[in-house]
Structures are given as C-alpha cells and as structure tokens.
Amino acid sequence: MKKKYKAVFFDLDHTLWDFETNSAEALRELHHAYGLHHKGVGIDDFLQTFKRINSQLWHQYDTGQIPQETIRKQRFHRILLEHNIDEYELSLQFSQDYVSQSPKKQYLIPHAKTVLEYLHPQYPLHIITNGFSEIQAIKMTSSGILHFFTSIVTAEKAGHKKPAKEIFEYALTENGLRADEVIMIGDNLVTDIGGAKAAQLDTVYFNPTAAPHHEKVTHEITSLLNLKDLL
Fold it and tell me: Which of 8, 10, 75, 163 is 20 to 30 A away from residue 196, measured at CA?
C-alpha cells in the first residue's frame, strides 16, 4: 500500500536538471569562444578536467571544507593550470561566462517533465539545493519546470547546506510540514539521502547507473518514471 505524503522534496542538479549535458554544451561553446584549441587545449581533455576538478570542489564544499566562493574564483584557474595556462583574469572571466550561460541550457534528466506533470496535481513540490541561489530559478525557467514548484530552498536561504539536517528542517518549517509527511528524492547518497535521513524524512535514491552501495534508503530507483509507481 502506498504511503500518502503531503509534499515531495527534490534535489535539482543531476536529479531533474541534466547538469552533465547542460554543462558540457556551455563548456564547448566557451572553449570555442576563448580559442582554447589555439592554446593547445583539446575539448575532450578540457571536459574531463572540468568534470574531475568540479566534482572535487563541490565535494569539498558539501563537506564544509571550502566556501562557495572558492568554486567561483578557483575552479577554472585550476582547470586551466592543468593545461599549462596560468591566466587568472582569464579564468575569472571564463567562470563568469560559464555561470551566466550554463543555467540557460534546457536539458532535463530523462522523464523529468513527465513525472513532474504527474506529481504536480497531487503534491506540493519543493526544491532543496546547495546550488547558487541566483541561478537555480534560471535553470528551472530555462528548462520549463519552474511552475511545478511551490518553493526553492537553497543553502544560502536556509543558512545551512545539505547534508545538514537543518536545511530540511528549514524547508519543513517554512511550509508547515512534519518530517513524516514528506519524501526526499535525490541522486547523492551523502547530501540528499544522508541529510534527509538525519532529518527523519523518507527517501528515494535516484541511482540511474545502478551503482552499488551499502546505504539504507527507503526506496531506490533507476528511472524517474519509477516515481509514478511509488507515488
């Protein structure tokens, strides 16, 4: 028998908004615009370096080792340094252009819009994200999903970031909800699932590659379409 929830919390990047595809498209455009191929930087190597360093920096941010501003100011400097380009001002401009252009990309994770159209009439939907506050609504508007959501709770707004239970408690309080009335859906076992569990929420781990793990989750899915069966 399905449990009836009063609201559904979603992570945004990698769960609904296709970060990998959107980011790669923006990076390809900027790689060309900045003439990085003339500086000896191949696009495939550049994309791989970005993926590795970006993941490292976001993990450090999520675990409280660095502030968000470090990502903005250091990410592309570190990436360019690995390709023997030591131009800090160039890296700052590249970062600014990336943060401006990437959120305007429209790709969603497969079946995201179908599932949101299914859930929206039944539940208030909320975003819980560690992403930069000013660009989350741009991402959601560009991809055509903003209207599905009642609220967007960011780490900046809540004063805490996932996996801290306080960001989830903030979202509950702001919307007059109890933990047992909400289910959290996300792709990250530490920030999304671990944080939600700490706040006593039921969880759905979105694991599209079926990667093995040892975490206890309420539900696990490999496709967003599976949510139609769960909810």
Answer: 75
Q: Where are the domains of the chain?
A: 7-18+108-230, 19-104
Mention the CATH class of domain 19-104: mainly alpha
* 27 and 50 Cβ atoms separated by less than 8 Å: yes
For residue range 119-133, list pLDDT tens digits in order: 999 999 999 999 877
Residue 29 · residue 200 · CB < 8 Å: no
CA-nearest of 208, 141, 152 to 11 is: 152
Within its chain, how far is the Cα of 23 from the centroid?
12
Pairing of strands 125-129, 7-10: parallel
Q: In whole angstroms, what is the distance from residue 212 CA to residue 231 CA? A: 24
As to burial, measured by CB atoms within 10 angstroms (0-12 exposed, 13-18 middle, 19+ buried), residue 133 is: middle
Could you tell me the two tokens for 53? Answer: 């360093």
Token code pair at residue 16: 């609904």
User: How confident is the model over 32-67, as pLDDT tens digits?
Assistant: 999 999 999 999 999 999 999 999 999 898 888 999
Contacts (Cβ under 8 Å, ≥6 apart) of 25: 105, 107
Arch. (CATH architecture) of 7-18+108-230: 3-Layer(aba) Sandwich (3.40)
3-state secondary structure of 157: helix
